[in-house]
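**Sequence, structure tokens**
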Amino acid sequence: MNKRIYQYTLAACLLTGAGACTTQKALQLPESTLATATTAPDTDTLSFSGFDRIFQDAHLKNLVDSALHHNYDLLAATRRIAAAQANLMMARNAWLPSVNLSLTAGVDHFADYTMTGVGNFDTNKSPNINNDQRAPDPTPEYFAGIRSSWEIDIWGKLKQQRHATMARFLATSEARRLLTTQIVAGITGLYYELLAMDNELTIIHRNIKLQEAAVATVHIQKDAGRATELAVQQFTAQLLSTKALEYGVKQEIAAIENQLNALMGRLPQPIVRSTVADTGSLPLSVPSGIPAQLLLQRPDIQKAELELSATKADVKAARAAFLPGLTITPYAGFNAFKAGLLFKSPASIAWGALGSITAPIFNKKQLKAQYNISTANAYTAFYEYQQAIINGYQEVATALNKVENQQQAYDLKSKEVLVLQQAVSTANILFTTGYANYLEVITAQKSVLEAELALVTTRKNVYQGLVSLYRSLGGNR
């Protein structure tokens, strides 16, 4: 059978001209060395098990679960996957023959000077036919049966189209995974931002009480003649400034809560979260090695790789379109020129089959244009894949550096806060005993407030770095 098809194809090429059966050259993309260049050193490397131990907050997990079920972007991505799956179903079945039930009726009047008109006239005069076989004029045509068309995939064009559709379906799934990772990372980052704001609010409240005590003390000292009205005014102004900070933090808390609610697909409402006392200490240091295999599992890199595979298949399908195609169109059913005779079996049963080999001649410019488009898309996908690997590597490296540097900064800031807290106590004692002036007390209180707020920010940056690292590694599957 294959030999016969080849012979028919060769004959079609000879009949239509040798140029009709030529195709374009195969796709040759540059060599990729980035995938092997990202291998990790022999030291300990990152893994998702560490992240599972870090992000154990029960309230955070509830927020993430809610977002994964109600986020509208994710729901839309799920529908896009369903559409891609439908396209895949069509591509998978493209090689099968189409079979259609056909019920047709028509009428023709043939001119006297046509082969059919002369043939019908002559046949009706023949003594060899009966009355049922005589053709009326005008001549009706009735058919009830099935008609089919089957394109034989000789050169693998349909197979390559199926491969491209499959790759794009998988790429759509990777796009949803990428979106999921971004949403999980976004919620986690905002959650730790919210905890940091709560912590800042606690620090502000504590400093307000400390400064209120200082205002009360300076009033007593003024009444005793040991302090001036200027000292009272300076302490009072500092207290008012600290109280004003509280409302700025409250506004930031409200904005973050609204962002979290939007990610979860719901209207604004309070966010249930851990208290400041439950946040715990900083996580342990993460390993510095970047595993190539884990890096290449990022959804954006996987998506880019699948898009590259799809465009390669598009080029192969475009090349195959230059070659002759074989189509078989069989039919079978009841056929008659009188409605009363349509189902008179077996005399009205008709069947037939037509096989055709077609090769492009005058539409080769369009085919070549499509091939050039597919080739350009393949090169574009290749470069985007390479860039996705580079972006992934630099994002992971940047996140690792951020975590490491912020952890070092946190240690130093913690020591600074401890020293400044002791300085405030010392300044208060010296002020009450007359060995320090009010400006030294105000400076000490202002410094410890700034240092404590900076410590909260540094702690938040450590967690934000871990969230960035989680996102840059593609998220857990």
Q: What stands out?
A: Residues 59 and 272 are 7 Å apart (CA to CA).
